[in-house]
Amino acid sequence: MRKIKKTIDDFKAKIISLSKYRWLRGVVIGTLVLGIALFAKNAIENNTYDSYKILNEIPEEDTAASKYVELGGNFLKYSGNDAILLDETGKTLWTQKLDMETPAVDVHDSIAVIYAKRGSKMVVLGKDGKIGEFNTDKPILKAKVTAKGMVAAVLEDGESTWINYYSVTGEQIMASKTSVDSPGYPIDIAISPSGMLLMVTYFQVEGGTTKSYVAFYNFGNAGQNQMDNMVSDYTYSGILVPQVEFLNDSLMVAFRDDGFTLYEGQQIPKEVKTIQIDEEIISTFHNEKYIGMVFRSDEKDKQYKLVLYDNKGRLKFEENFDAEYSTIKISNETILMYNEGQICIMSSKGVMKFNGSIEERTILNIFKMDMNRYQLVTNRGIKTIKLT
Fold first, then answer.
1. Helix and strand numbers, DSSP H then E, in the chain
2. Per-residue model confidence (pLDDT) at position 26
3. What value does the mean pLDDT take over residues 26-49?
4. Distance, CA of 57 to CA of 257 (rounded, Å)
5. CA 156, CA 140: separation in Å to the nearest integer?
6. Cβ contacts of residue 204 below 8 Å, gap of 6+?
7. In a 10 Å sphere around its CB, with 0-12 CB exposed, 13-18 middle and 19+ buried, how is residue 114 labelled?
8. What pTM value is reported for the model?
9. How many CB atoms are located within 10 Å of the residue 230 CB?
10. First to last CA, the chain
11. Rounded to an integer, what is the distance from CA 57 to the centroid of its chain?
């Protein structure tokens, strides 16, 4: 009996020892796989390329008459006639009639609003098609959409303007009349992804002095007892603030003519950091993780300087470059610059991955697909390229 018990105890010990070994082996293998994956990712991010090859091409007769934006991983093609959602192969997922003379768009992830600029029609679209449509009682100057489909808009009314906030079906949540005297002329608006906060930058003239006035409106409990739902505001004398954006629900940025200011707070936003720049700002761009600006450089053969910060205002890199561009944007970890015939691709670490000409056709837009593939919208169609 003792012998059997000893045998069982030895067997249990071997099982425990083997289990420990397997667990340790799993940890080692997992660590190696993770290390190899990180090494490969880092190597790809630091690779540079001098050519490309076309993987796929979708001919489009009316590409030049339409505009394209990314919508939830697909491509929204729109013109005054209609909006069409295409997948990356060019397959039509749905079509929505618009009938607008001058359509403009704002997108948040998989939700878009297409509106008639200086018209009255708004159409809210999602990944499955139309989710709302309504008309405003005054001409629309600008509109922004939330992740839930609510829309904030600046409306024109003679010498005055209105800032209105609508549900996805057009129900008016807020209407605030503005003038140059009080609180100023609205230059730009931004709405939080949840729809809780509205951010507005106004231009003011007082006693011959120009000012920018940045205000935050809360549509939740914090703003219920406040005048016009305003919960915080900041005045900047002699400074122009032409652009405001939400990086996420609790982090905002105001682009100024001398840099940018960050604000933080999901209920009552507070100013947390200002980065001041001495040079003239040529371009700005951002996403939820980064804030970037372009200036003139002092180098003759590299006339531009790109500066990238993280969303806390910490400098990531400064890099001079020589590419002429008309559009700049950031997609995940990649900065994309292009004009009609040239593309410049830079990583978020400042590595110039590609800087060259696309000879075949005029470039209208570019979208990043994965590590090394990009989709180009040209005046003759859509093509998928791979850097080589």
1. 1, 32
2. 55
3. 60
4. 41
5. 6
6. 180, 183, 184, 185, 210, 211, 212, 213, 235
7. buried
8. 0.85
9. 16
10. 72
11. 26
